[in-house]
Design a protein that fits this description.
Layout lengths: L13 E4 L4 H12 L5 E4 L7 H11 L12 H6 L13 H10 L8 E3 L4 E3 L11
Parallel strand pairs: 1-2
Antiparallel strand pairs: 1-3, 3-4
């Protein structure tokens, strides 16, 4: 199956989804209730490339440490955390490289549009792109 790339046109939306995550399921349900037109990418099975993550960071307009799941084992094992479970001194490059290797550390859900993206925490935040 070919990787579904990030939206390139106005009106295209892509939900980066993990069905095992309650927040991700809630965001999916909100979009469906509003009959939004969107595609779903199961990012754990169809991981984002480093280029896609760079572009996602641009669309989110937030540093990688703000949408990285610091509680995941893969994050802790990478040794990038600071004392309080934050991203320590890790730069965006290191964190994006970690996300390529271990997509589980990407916060979810994320709704991606052509120019912007939002993290669905709380899930209602995805409605900002509609």
């Amino acid at each position: 199956m070919a990787a579904m790339s990030l939206p390139a046109s106005d009106g295209e939306l892509l939900l980066l989804h993990n069905p095992r995550c309650s927040k991700s399921r809630a965001a999916l349900a909100l979009l469906e209730e509003r009959k939004a037109s969107f595609a779903v990418r199961m990012y754990l099975e169809d991981p984002l490339s480093r280029d896609e993550l760079d572009e996602l960071r641009r669309r989110l307009d937030r540093p990688a440490r703000e949408w990285c799941r610091k509680g995941e084992d893969a994050f802790r094992e990478a040794g990038l955390g600071g004392d309080a479970g934050n991203a320590g001194n890790a730069g965006d490059g290191e964190l994006l490289d970690l996300m390529v290797q271990h997509p589980i550390v990407i916060e979810r859900p994320i709704l991606v549009g052509r120019d912007r993206a939002v993290v669905g925490r709380p899930p209602e935040d995805v409605l900002d792109l509609l």
